[in-house]
Amino acid sequence: MNIYVGNLDYKVDENELQEIFEEYGSVSSAKIIMDRFSGRSKGFGFVTMDDDEEAQKAINELNGANYKNRDIVVNEARPRKESFNR
To answer: Where are the alpha helices (DSSP H) in the chain?
Structure first.
């Protein structure tokens, strides 16, 4: 399952994000989204967990949890919408 994680502290890195979710099960990937111009974190990322039950437990327990003085948003990632840049 692909999981969206938002409202992250800008200093959280991919290893730290992976460690948070490994408490709930096996993590196959953790990605922080970076601004392509500044190279800084955009404050959100995605975690992929193969076991849907473990992923759902992580979502239920981490959504709204306080991490580094921020209430993080955790939910199942929705498919990316097509954008039409003209």
So the answer is: 14-22, 52-62
**Tens digit of each residue's pLDDT (9 = 90 or more) over 22-33:** 999 999 999 999
pTM reported for the whole predicted model: 0.90
Query: What dihedral do alpha carbons 60, 70, 83, 76 form, nearest 10°?
Result: -10
The fold adopted by the segment(s) 2-74 is Alpha-Beta Plaits (3.30.70)
For the chain, the domains span 2-74
What is the C-alpha separation between 53 and 45, in angstroms, rounded?
Answer: 20
In sequence order, what are the residues at sequence separation of 6 or more whose Cβ sits closer than 8 angstroms to the Cβ of residue 67?
A: 8, 9, 12, 20
